[in-house]
Amino acid sequence: MAPPKQEFQESLKHMRQGGSARQGGSASDRKSRVRFALSEAHLRRARKHMAEARCVALFRDERKGRLLVRYRACLGDDFTVVSGVLGLRPCEGSGDDLSKVTKVILTDFCTPHQGLLRNCALPDQENVDPASLEIEIRKKVTMVVSDAAAAELVSGDILRGRRAYACSGQLQADFPNIRIVGRDIAHASTRLLKRPLCHHETLKSLTSEFVTASDSFCQKVFHSNVFKGWWAEALLHKEDEEFTTGSSISAAKHRFSSYALPLGRLCRNSVAMVAVCQRIDAMRGENALWAGKLLRNLTGRKMLLLSVCADAAHTSLDFTRFADEESSDIAQLNQEADKFCRTIRTLFVDGRVTELPTFTKDMIDTLQRGDLTVMLDRCPREIRITQEDKVYALKVMQEWAVAAEASVESEFPSWHLLSCFSVFNLQSRRDSRQQDSSTVRACLRKLAKAFNVCPEALQKQYVGLLPVAEALHKQGSMVNRAAWTEAIRRTVSRQKVRERHAPKELSEVLCGYFTWSASTSGVEQLFSKIKRSPVELASASVDTDRHLAIVMGDDAQGMKSDEDTLITEAQKLYVGLLRSGKARASAKTRRLDAGSKRKLRPLPGKKKTEAQWHRRRRAAVARATRDDAELVTPPRRAPVELPQSLQKETDRQRTQAGKRKAEAFLDGYLLDEEITDSVRQVARDQLRGNNASDAKRRKAWTTYEETRIMANEMQTRQWALRDLPTNVWLDKTEPGLHPAWQAMLRQECRASVSFCTDLRQGQLFVVKDFGSVHRKVRLMAALRGGTILSGSVLEGRSGAKVTYNSGLMLPVAVFTSNDFKTQEPGMTMILRDACSHGWQAVAVEGLRGRGRRPSLHLKASSERVQGGSGRPRSDKDVPNDAQREMVNDINNLSSSWRRRLGLHPAPSDEGMIRLVSDCAGYGSDLIALRLLGLQKRVQVVMISEVAKDKRILHSSVATACGWSDGHGESVSDIMTRNDLTAPRADLYVAGYPCPSFSRLGKRQGARDQRGFVTLKGLKYIAASRPRALILEQVSELQQAKHKRVWEFIQKILTRLNYAFVWKVLSPKHFAVPQSRPRTYVVAVARESLRTRELTLPAERPHCSDLHHFLDKTVVGSEKLDLPVYEEKLGSQMWERGWVLDVGSSPSFQHPLKNLCPCLTKTRLQQGGYYVTRLRRRLLVEEAGRLQSVPQQVLKQMVQAANDANLRQRAVDAALGGRDERRRLDVSPWRCIGWVGNDLDNAAEERLLAASAMW
């Protein structure tokens, strides 16, 4: 018996939202069967539609290794159009793989009950033969649409038999009736704005300064919660009471309007933008130099250019909105493209943009009223515009308009087959802009050629039915497709009219008109919906993804009758799935991404929304454009001279238009009068290019297959010795091996092998040890495209083979210093020869002045030139000069401390303790001092912490621990601090950034900016010599990789006359079950030491049970797929409370018995720790316990994070950023004598036990 209808409705609702089988409770076989039955019911209906279809179009897109295919089909004589998902499959992304996966998806679609669940029987079979249905669908497919990716275009040609598969090298028409491979017009419409914009230097720099660059106003505000609040507050104080505006200036909710939304809102709120920048500049100072720079460079001309860019972006967005619909009417494509061109001419060429209610008009009014004033250095500066600024702005946009029209001609050519469907556009005829008769006849002839019908009969039927369709469109207010459908129905239903105007040919073309679309928005929207769905975060299988995509992509969502029919069919399928015939009892046209956008609500006190303002603007621009179009004699416009970069892009677009016309010629639907010699020549060039590309693909595939076969058959030696060059150079350091190598090469190559002693003549370089190849050999192999081969390969042992592409064919800039030329005359001769073959020899100034880093930069071992290096430097690398300067400063300060500072006075038992904390984190040192009872004697004189979130949490911890007056000087960036004038400390505590030294990081040490902070902290120690200090770093600091840094720290502490000890300790040594090994350094000035030696606290013999730190009352339902841990732990993984690091790579996944892995900032912020028995992630309260943070302090931190509106999981990230050091803080107090003799061993044990309680 099937479950009740309500359960199917609930599952259908969850599946349409992308929910997994675990949604609403735990997963079960019953739920899985219900979901499988629902997807199969969808597929049965879809297969029925495809069997009845007359014409089918496929829409596909590949994203992140998955190919999604949708279909759109026209059914029967009533021209009903249906659409849905064909399937979803993994895909590698090459043209061949896309073609193969497309066929696999079609086969799966035609085969019932794919991915049948366990313990299920096959239901009643459909009366459809899968093989016959697949053959029929392949014949009915007349169009494939994808974006303009090269691999997808190649795949389209492969499917229709125009290009060969790489694996076979033969043509195979899998879909023989494909008329056209379409490109997504929504993507194409965005290129109308962005391509000209990015190639105009003025507009590119402007949009970069305000919108796109990392230091632009939009990006800075978007990535800062504080700046967002200031921006929203500034919008509330606008004086304009008529229209409101949104506060978001991020990349827009609409997926194509990333320029339009922020540009428009900046222009309409320019006064608020200036106010926010001034507030940032005043309150942040040197930490926000970008705001002051923007204000200083702000001019009226810039603001006017910004506003005309906003108008251009929104004009392009209007066109994109039309194109971004799978059901968009392709008959209106020409009309919309023409409307776009006429609009930009009216606005920018005729200059109406300054008169109509546009962004530009608003900006001009704002600047002329004097509302925009910038306060710099306490002096107001009013931003004004002149007539010259208006003329310049219009001139720039006229240049953009010329390039945009060239892009329209390239992306939406008037002769294209899709444009021919404009003959069915009744709206253009109603607006008195119909095409002339010759254009209509030409379009009908093209359509007749494409659909293999008689052109004369098609034209006769079109002329006969056109008046009927026009009357229906005008009187019945029908859209184009509905009017033509009704006209055909009326013709077929009347016998006399049918005999006189039998619409056989016209019906064939109309099927294509109703089915075809030039937009993949349905696929894009479904991908976006899947990305936001809960199942994307779960460990779902490919079949689960496929079934979900089929249901989520259903175009009949919301139709009650269709839903009832589907559920009834699903219930029948459910009964058929059960072997016993009864279910087991369970254990406890709309947009496809609809519902994801939030509606904009008016702000308090406002009457109209931003959308209403945009509608008013569009209506005014449309009226002006219509008035200009109705002029009998259009105005003559002078030609515009374009900048060089924009002219180059315009010429490229016109060349691209010629290539598109050549593709149309190859498709076979161009008319004879449109075919010219230039079109034929471009088509021939394109065919030659395709042949060369196919040969390259074939060669690459053949090489891959041969290598794979040899690897499977353990024939790696045969592969390594295949196709070796004949000019051989042998390693001169091993002359004794030359005879044996020569004999083996003659035997293996079976050709005339010549051996040379001159390195410049070699093509094959045989060496003994591949790991120590001389750089001359490597360079020569790279120059000549040679091969380096290990001699051990010839002897039948393991080795290496590397083949280079010829470096002489690459554009490389080479710099050689005079010292290098003196030390390496042979290398200099080789480089001089390379430069004569096309390389470029440059000076140091030339390297600095080039726009990008050169591909190769040779240098001697002791020199470094700013222009580049052999290894491209990262943005986080610290220059060697800065490192040397820092080391010299530390050495000088540590050598002169006696003269500058003198000795510390004797410590007092009642005096105040001045505390300085670098990289303070959330304030773990304050917690330790509070547990020691020293909060009244410690004065926090300075902290440094670069993360704003942690500074806020540090203040909350200080308040919770008894420092009501906060702390002293706060430094946001330790690197900007003047250590010579910084406050002097009695106790210095620092936990420097560890990724530069950790084995999980890049291990760049002090060469990395984060590792360089360690040297900066050491400079403060040398400059002020605190009485006592505690330093923390990862245990890898003592390894050989970082030996120089570790030894340098010890040398400086010794020179500063410190008594110091160090040890690698972990919380597990002090009864807290966490594995967090860290190197701790405790140092005390010798004149303040009251004990003979400095010691660290003794380790506890036993560790607490991990279960005591977990909240066992909170149980989740998330069961992860963890193959690495399951292999190591077996079934006990789910029976015991393991805490596992599930965010790390498999090589670092090691379970720890009764221990939590090292809690890190990144993993805690991502929720990457999983408690197996409780089926959930680690809670922030549990992370606080494992970091020994008292419960009341943790609550204060969470409250502070909520009050400051910090990002999600900010407290978790702070807890993982720095370890608790409270147990180590006991040792310096005993040694210095501030605590006195009252703290005996028993008291110390009680203190350690108390610190682990909460």
UniProtKB/TrEMBL annotation:
Keywords: Methyltransferase, S-adenosyl-L-methionine, Transferase. Residues 597-606 have a biased composition (Basic residues). Residues 1-32, 586-659, 853-882 are annotated as: Disordered. SUPFAM superfamilies: S-adenosyl-L-methionine-dependent methyltransferases. The active site is at residue 994. Pfam families: DNA_methylase. Residues 17-27 have a biased composition (Low complexity). This is DNA (cytosine-5-)-methyltransferase. It comes from Durusdinium trenchii.
